[in-house]
Amino acid sequence: MRDFGISDCRQIATPMSTGIQLTKVDPNNQDCVEQYESLVGSLMYLTVCCRPDLAYSASYFSQFDNSCSKKHFNHLKRVLKYIKNTISHDLMFERSDSKVTNVTVFFLFRLGQ
Predict the structure, then answer these.
(1) Using an 8 Å Cβ cutoff, are 41 and 65 in contact?
(2) pTM of this structure
(3) Would you list the domain boundaries of the chain?
(4) pLDDT tens for residues 45-71?
(5) What's residue 5's pLDDT?
(6) Confidence of residue 2 (pLDDT cuts 50, 70, 90)
(7) Rounded to 5°, angle at Cα 37 from 26 and 92
(8) Residue 93's beta-bridge partner residues?
(9) Strands (DSSP E) along the chain, which ranges?
(10) CA 5 → CA 12, 21, 25, 70, 85, distances in Å?
(11) Are strands 90-96 and 99-108 parallel, antiparallel or unpaired?
(12) Which residues fall within 8 angstroms of residue 37, CB to CB, at 6 or more apart?
């Protein structure tokens, strides 16, 4: 979060605004392509490794990799604010009756931190 300048941001409960509709911009009028691509790549990594709740956001914002603007980047930074709010959430997999098909997935919320 330090890399993207939002280490002291307010926390948000959802990764994306409702009804968000971004459009591609002219490839010659790109403000922040390198930072945008870096952040989308980081979100993809988090999605695959440990944060499946970010899958939709990462997929949505990856559509604008080659045609983004400051508006796109600001919406993408909202996902970082969401991550900051949910950093203490855990994803746990449990196995019951030694059957792989019975996997329980839930979030463990730690309150009071």
Answers:
(1) no
(2) 0.71
(3) 2-88
(4) 988 888 888 999 999 999 988 788 888
(5) 65
(6) low
(7) 135
(8) 105
(9) 90-96, 99-108
(10) 16, 24, 24, 14, 16
(11) antiparallel
(12) 65
